Every structure is written in C-alpha cells, then in structure tokens.
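Below is how a single chain appears once it has passed through the pipeline. First comes the sequence as given, then the structure the pipeline wrote out for it. We keep one example in the README because the format questions we get most often are answered faster by looking than by reading.
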Amino acid sequence: MNYNIGKKLLSERFYLTWAGEEMSWTVRMTLKMRDSVDGDLLRQAVEQARQRYPYYQVKLDVKKDDAGTEYFVYEDNSEPWVVSEGEMPVQLIGPESNHHLLAFCYWDDCIAIDFFHCLTDGTGAYNILRTLLYEYCNRRYDVALSRANVRVVGDTISPTEWEDPAAQAKPDNLAPFQVPERKRCINLTTQAKTALNEAVETVNILVEEQEMMKYVSSGDTSPATLVSLLLTRAIARLHPDMTEGVPMVALAINQRPALGCPQAGQTMAGSLRLTLNDEMRGMGLELQQTIFRGMVALQSNEDNVIEGFWQTQNTQDMFEKVPTLEGRHQAMAKAFSVALSAASACVSYVGKANLGAAEQYVSEMYTEAYTPYALTVEMSAVNGTFCISLMQRFADDNYLDAFLDELLQIGISYRIATRHPVTVAPIADYRKN
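Resulting structure:
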C-alpha cells in the first residue's frame, strides 16, 4: 500500500526547514499511570501500536530533483520503535531511535512518547497513545477493554489518514473574514521584567476538571480561550506601560476540520492571535472574555483557517527557491527574531485526551514542547484533571505567580505537581541523513 513513501514532503516543511540543535521542535507527552509500569508489557504494546501506523514507520531521506534542488522524503523504516527505561529521552532521527521520528520511554509509574513535530502534532500523538494504552492496559490488568474510539491492528487504514492535504489544490473562491491589523506585541524575549535563563523550566499545574468546566460553562468560553486571556492579563499586569506593546497569545488550533481532513496524520496545527488590546485593559473580565471569544470565532472561520494553511505552504515554496536544505535552514533561522515578535506567549490545548476505556488507569497527563517563546503553556485533560504545563525561561516566578493569581481571582484553585527542567528529545542532524 502507498503511504506517500518517497514523495516530496509538504506539510512537514515548516518544522524541517527550521528545526536544529538549538530548536528541536520536539514534543513529549507523559502519562502518569495508576500503577508502576511493566517494561516488558509496554514493549509488546508499543510493537502492536507500531503495526497500526505504517505511515509513522518512516525515516527521513534527502533527494534532488532534476534541477538539483534538495528536498525531504520519507522512506520505509522496518526497525522497531525504541522503548527505553529511564526519564531521559533518546535522540530522535539518529541511531538511538533506530532513525525513527518518535520514541518511547518509561520510569516508575510514567510512560512518555517523544516525537518530532514534523511527523505529527498532538492530535496524531493522541491517536498513538490511545492505541498504546489499549494494548498495554489489556495486558497489564488482564482485562478486555472496549476498543471504542481506539485504532487497533486489523483496522482498514483509510487513505485519509496518510494523504497530505498540502498535495491537493488550493480551493477556489475563498472568502476569509477581514481580521483587524495586528498591533506590536510585547516580546518577552527582549522586554521581560525579569532576567531570562538559557535553560527552560516546566511547571506542571493541576486543576480539577469539574472546577474548570464549571467556570468555563458559566462564562460561555473554552478552557484554551480562558487560559489565553488569563495569561495576557498576567503579562499586562507586569507591563503597565502601554507603549511597550500589547500582550498577545498565539493559540494553537487544529486545522483538520476546516481543511476537510479530520483523519489526517500530519501536523495540521495553525494558530490564532489573541490580543489584550489597550482599550481592553480597564474592562471587566466578563467583557474581556466576550471579546476574546469573538476573536476566536473570527479567526477560526473556516475560510480564514484554509487561507492561513495555504499562506504557510506559499511561504515554504518561497524558501525552496534556495536549492539546498542547509541554505533554507539558514534563511529561516534569520527570520527567528521575526517569529519571536509575532506573539508574547503560546498556548496549546489539543482537547480532552479521551483515551477510551484505558483512561481509568491514567491519573495525570503532561505535555512539554520546545518553542521559541519565553513563555509557553501546554494543556492536557485526563481522568477529571486539567494539567497546565507552563514552560518558562525566566530567572524568577513573576510571570508564573501573576498567572496563578489570575486563576485564584476567578475562584479556580490549583496545585503545583512538579517542577523540572524541560524534558524533550534532541534530534540528530537530519539534513545530512
């Protein structure tokens, strides 16, 4: 069966062009299980999961077209997915991971998946985790779990899972809504009210789902929109001088529904820009929520999302005027400061994990990612608990404390579960593969 093996990679180009030793663009999702992890059973479950996702059994290769321009392709990789014992991830794309773009590890009561963002995004990783947990928990607890909402070996794999939307033609007659001109935003990598560290710290904050959803429902908002607003309010509190710019959050969204490809396995993440404009600072929280909700509705309009997707593809087409992969990487690295100035912080929430019948054996779920921003929030929700993973490069907790105080002010209690250096996988120099 053809899984786009050997074809020029398209949707993946943004991360392939940018990523490198300084910016790995890798993601870790960690499941804290109810009980200690059995490594042998986990390896069996991972092998079963691998068989379900042939389009993720790949390694990167470099080809040249007739004009001598280099481009990336996927090639088959029949080596097993690596499962290592211990909290530290293996290097992806290189020998440690059998040249795969994802790997697994376990320690104590935790299971983690590490993946390169060019392979897939949170939605794709959730599918893998559902399969993995189904296979693992059936073995670990000697049960026959329901397979509802879970992809398993033996399924008919639809081409809609592996066909790349970027290989299709751009739709005609798009009519995106006019979005207000973006204002200059506060750049926390240059304007932070505290010193920055080179190292990134992850702070895992737990909130009861019932408490979060009670507030969200009463405010007619969503968890991601609410956290984005609270984060901009926290930043605004520390930046009262409006001449510095405005607090702006890049809120990640799933582009699949708008693109008409709900099963697509590639990275289909775009972003909205949610801004606490100067005139909003003195408003009450309820009115701010209404305005943020309007920003989300406007920017996530189907045609706007489709237009944004194709703008990204057009930008990558422009980079491909540089014939070598290394040259393109250097060109995109020069745009690094531009990217940093595009938002003050980033918020990402894939949605409830919905891990199926196996979710009863999971107590917490954390997501970490290496991004260019000094402040990033990744959210997960599993088994009645919201896990807000805040990644910061600050030398003190001024921004963290301001955000936590925003939670308390609206009556949402929390506890900090863990704090540790951000733990994501390094990547090999794949441009030389």
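The first strand starts at residue 26 and ends at 33.

See the next section for the split statistics.
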